[in-house]
UniProtKB/TrEMBL annotation:
Pfam families: CcmD. It comes from the Bacteria. InterPro entries: Haem_export_protD_CcmD (IPR007078), Heme_exporter_D (IPR052075). This is Heme exporter protein D. The lineage of its organism: Bacteria, Pseudomonadati, Pseudomonadota, Gammaproteobacteria, Methylococcales. It is a single-pass membrane protein. Its main location: membrane. Belongs to the CcmD/CycX/HelD family. The gene is ccmD. It is found in: Cell inner membrane. Keywords: Cell inner membrane, Cell membrane, Cytochrome c-type biogenesis, Membrane, Transmembrane, Transmembrane helix, Transport. Required for the export of heme to the periplasm for the biogenesis of c-type cytochromes.
Length: 51
């Protein structure tokens, strides 16, 4: 089995690797969005405390 055959996966490689890519993207977004929202929330709370 060559590396090219591994990535081709019997002709279904495009679908398999696309689904892996989409899954990875969703996982990364699920990690980053709460971090960004927390920073925004803390920034808003700091501004409220200054008033």
């Amino acid at each position: 089995m060559t590396l090219q055959e591994f990535f081709a996966m019997g002709g279904y490689g495009f679908y398999v690797w696309t689904s892996y890519g989409i899954t990875l993207l969703v996982l990364v977004v699920n990690i980053l969005i709460p971090i960004i929202q927390r920073k925004q929330f803390l920034r808003q709370q700091a501004l409220k405390q200054k008033r």
